[in-house]
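Q: Got a minute? One more chain.
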Amino acid sequence: MLQSIVELANDGILVFNDRLEVEYANRTISQITGYEHTRILEMTITDLLGNESRALLEGIFSHPEKYGEKTCTEIRFPTASGEIRNAEICIAFATPPVGPDMAYAYVRDITDEKRIGNELREANEFFKNLISSSVDGIIAADMKGNIFIFNQGAENLTGYTAEEFIGKVHITQLYPESVARDIMRQLRSPDNGGIGKFNPSQLNLVSKNGEEIPFQLSASLIYDSMGKEIASVGIFADLRPRLDMERKFQETQLQLISSEKLASLGKLAAGIAHEINNPLGGILIYSSLMMEDLAEDDPKRQDLARIVQEAGRCKEIVKSLLEFARQSEPNMEPVDINRAITEGLFFLENQAFFHNIQIIKKLGSSLPFALGNAGQLKQVFMNIIVNAAEAMHGSGTLTIYTSFNREHNNITIEFTDTGEGIPEENLTRIFDPFFTTKDIGKGTGLGLSTAYGIIEGHGSKIEVRSKVGVGTTFTILLAPCPETQPILENRPSEVIGSAQGHHSFKGEPSGMSAVLP
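A: Always. Here it is, folded:
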């Protein structure tokens, strides 16, 4: 009966004599090794299970006191077909009442177990690397909210390290108040992807420095074999790059629309300019001829001179329109900036809107000429001055300052008003085409965008700083004309007064007069 039990055992059972020969083997050993039972009974442990087993068995026979009741180890051995298998072998030493000493060996084939174990380890390592290397954040927490997975993507997104978070920070601290509770409620609801699922949704999380970061969350519940909730896992995709790309795309679309509008406006301006140019030429010619027919002391000459002057001004405006429409190239030449500013003010000072505005001019007396187009620069200055007057609602102080910075080799022009100021959210948009805060019908939004384009076309910079309720300063930095350099020290000259009537000059700069004809 005992032999039948041994024969039916799942493990191989062997008995060895002190010569390391097989005295007994059950049928399972044949299945493990692939040898016939009769052949096994003719083999030594070396022939059957290899040198590893022989060394162990020799040690047990030589010094049984060192090995205890049973010694187990893992071995690799070749089968009858040459296949290498893995086995666990346990050997016990026994001295029978009669006869020589014997050793009993129990052999269990663990080849498949080892293979499955290796495959599991490789799979675990693969999934561990997959989670670790994911660009998206992957965070898992138990049902108490304790985090046990926090990958590199989650570290990049939140600013926390895994060491700071795992086992130390509750999952609710990632979200604004009550958001985590709402996510769990939706995970248990069939309305957002099914029970246990949370379809991708845009949310915010709170980073280590307190910043709310937009992200897309996909989540699910993890269940055990009994269907009990044991954990939740979420994939956190950072939306900042995508939202930034969408914002830039929208800005590009607006720029394209604005470009189309400007192109249409340019064509319209070119057509109007050509239509106006012809009658203006006639007015100038016939006015000049009439002046030639009048005596020098005839009072009508002054009126005709005014007609010639205003018609000439109209031709300059038409020329600017043509340049705006790119029908002609602006001439770049040395420009006296102080004179351009003064001439621009001359056209504005008699307008009623400027009567209650005090203009303070601090114009550098030794400015070099700037390389540019006088008409275009004058247009820029007039646009800024008019905007300043409108910001002050026709009452306030406008300070115009010019100087030459030798260190940076540029001409600085500043227009500072005491108006209502520009809100911070509008500062980055004031140079955008068609952007205006004025009421419908009171502004086109082209003044500052045109000014920006002209200054950029001169290879120069225009900047703005403003404070609501205090005022605004526009700064223009122009490159000096290489052929002209300042001769005198840069000594500011002040022109103080209101636009109503003539200005009074202190230290009048060279090349300027208080009243221009």
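A: The chain has 15 helices and 19 strands.
Q: Perfect, thanks.
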